[in-house]
Each structure stands twice: as C-alpha cells, then as structure tokens.
Amino acid sequence: MAAGDSLLSPSVTRTLLSQVAAGIQKKLPNDPRLAELTAREREVLVQIGTGKTNAEIAAELFITPLTAKTHVSRIIGKLGVRDRTSLVVLAYESGLIAPGQALGNA
C-alpha cells in the first residue's frame, strides 16, 4: 500500500472476489439432503463425519458441549437418520467430507 491506497483497482478487486466466491460455491456439495441444514449444522456434520465427539466439536467450533449435542439432534431430525453412524455415511455420500478427513486427518 502506498499512502493508504489499495494496490488493486476496484474493478480488479471485484473480479478477484467473484472468482473466489465462485470457487467456494463449486466446493460446496449440492446434495439435496443437505438443503435444510444451516451453515452451522453443516459445520457440525463435517465434524461428526471426521469422528469427533460432542466435546471435541464444541472445542473446535467454540460452542458448549450442550449446544453441540443440540445441533447433532437437530441434524439427525432434519435428515431423518437413526444415529451418528448414519450421519457419517451421509457426510461421505454427499461429498461433504472426503476419504482421509476422518479421525483428525482433515
């Protein structure tokens, strides 16, 4: 920066930001089963898919363990699955997580 001015022109900045946003959108799974989940519930589902407990999810996302448990319960209800194991399967099937991300390898 020179004298507080930006190094990029506003048009270049807009182009760059739109390309970054497009790249992020391409990386998000488009599985219709995930449509009802909030962004936070998706974050929690990723954590579940990588094998984390409610306490570990809470620490990772800076929430309380009770809040993590509530998110897990709501996700199970919204997705109509039986348990956490089913959530792990769904996270893999939907592309939300990929092989190799499990158990702290993320």
What would you say this structure looks like, in words?
With 106 residues, this protein is mainly alpha-helical. The chain has a domain at 31-94: Winged helix-like DNA-binding domain superfamily/Winged helix DNA-binding domain (Arc Repressor Mutant, subunit A, Orthogonal Bundle), CATH 1.10.10. It is built from five helices and no strands. Helix 2 (39-49) crosses helix 4 (65-79). The protein starts with 9 loop residues before the first helix and ends in a 12-residue tail after the last helix.
Short structural description:
The chain is mostly helical.
Number of DSSP helices? 5
Shape, please? elongated
CATH class annotation of the domain at 31-94: Mainly Alpha
Q: Please identify which CATH superfamily of the domain at 31-94 we are dealing with.
A: Winged helix-like DNA-binding domain superfamily/Winged helix DNA-binding domain
Instruction: Report the end-to-end length measured between terminal Cα atoms.
Output: 35 Å
The radius of gyration computed from the alpha-carbon positions, rounded to a whole number of angstroms, is: 18 Å
Structural class based on helices, strands and sheet pairing: mainly alpha
Strand content: under 5%
The major beta sheet can be summarized as:
none
The fold-level CATH name of the domain at 31-94 is: Arc Repressor Mutant, subunit A
Order of helices and strands: HHHHH
